Amino acid sequence: MIGIIVAESEEMEAVKNIMKNIEIKNIYEFKVVIGEINNKTYILIKSGVGKVNAARTAQILIDKFDIEYIINVGSAGALNAKLNIGDIVIGSKLVQHDFDVTAFGREKGYISEVGKFFESDLEIIKKAKEVKINDINIVLGTIASGDIFCTDVKMKEEIRKEFNADCVEMEGAAIAQVCFLSKVPFIIIRSISDIPNNNNQIDFKNYIKLASKNCAELISRI
Predict the structure, then answer these.
(1) Is the CATH number 3.40.50.1820 carried by domain 2-221?
(2) What is the pTM assigned to this prediction?
(3) Contact criterion met (CB below 8 Å) for 211 and 191
(4) Which of the residues 166, 169, 171, 194 is marked catalytic?
(5) Per-residue pLDDT averaged across 104-124, rounded?
(6) Is 23 tagged catalytic?
(7) Of 87, 155, 143, 148, the residue nearest 118 (C-alpha)
(8) Residue 111: how many CB atoms within 10 A of its CB?
(9) From the candidates 8, 10, 11, 166, which is the catalytic residue?
(10) C-alpha triplet 140, 1, 95: angle, nearest 5°
(11) How many CA atoms lie within 13 A of 48 on its CB side?
(12) Residues forming beta bridges with residue 71, ordered by sequence position
């Protein structure tokens, strides 16, 4: 069984729309959707926003189901100037940009016992890289996660410079850390919904459905 984690209702609906033979189960307070995509069984769950919600959800999937690997999809803000609304970033590396123990001589983003970057599974990346979707730029890059919706241009530039990150969001690296610790393969995928510009929350609301649809399309073709 393959796990899919999303954070928002729009993302949940987009993935659910490509599933067949759907069954709904209740686990803790979650409504879990089990169904098929291209004759493979997937389990879809909405974590809610933020790193703690995402990490908790990933661990529940791992503990309660026989998970082959986990896919996390959703929206993100672009840090790379070459990315436009709707483009997709396949996260080869994940980092928590707000994790800071620099007072102890470590680099920003470094987490004790696990390091700075988490890497998506190479075999799943290979499958994702083979996908072509008309008019959508799909790139391999670094995704930065933190418990803040990034609107500030200065913060955008700092995260880009510090981690060479291509986009910023609020869940991916936390899911990556749980999967790493539990030895479960994973891949984090983001579609661009906005570009931090001090007012990009408006773009996020306008384009989250497009970003969600593009992520679901990529899943259906992997």
Answers:
(1) no
(2) 0.95
(3) yes
(4) 194
(5) 95
(6) no
(7) 143
(8) 16
(9) 11
(10) 35
(11) 9
(12) 4, 187
Q: Residue 170: CB partners within 8 Å, gap ≥ 6?
A: 7, 49, 50, 51, 54, 145, 146, 147, 148, 149
Question: pLDDT tens, 2-38?
Answer: 999 999 999 999 999 999 999 999 998 899 999 999 9
**Residue closest to 101 by CA, chosen among 85, 83, 114, 82:** 114
Query: Catalytic residue at 11?
Result: yes
Runs of H (alpha helix) within the chain: 9-16, 51-64, 122-129, 153-163, 172-182, 201-221
Longest pairwise C-alpha distance within the chain: 52
Residues whose CB is less than 8 angstroms from the CB of residue 127 and which lie 6 or more positions away in sequence, other chains included: 222
Q: Are strands 186-194 and 138-145 parallel, antiparallel or unpaired?
A: unpaired
Do residues 179 and 70 lie in contact, with contact meaning Cβ atoms separated by under 8 Å?
yes
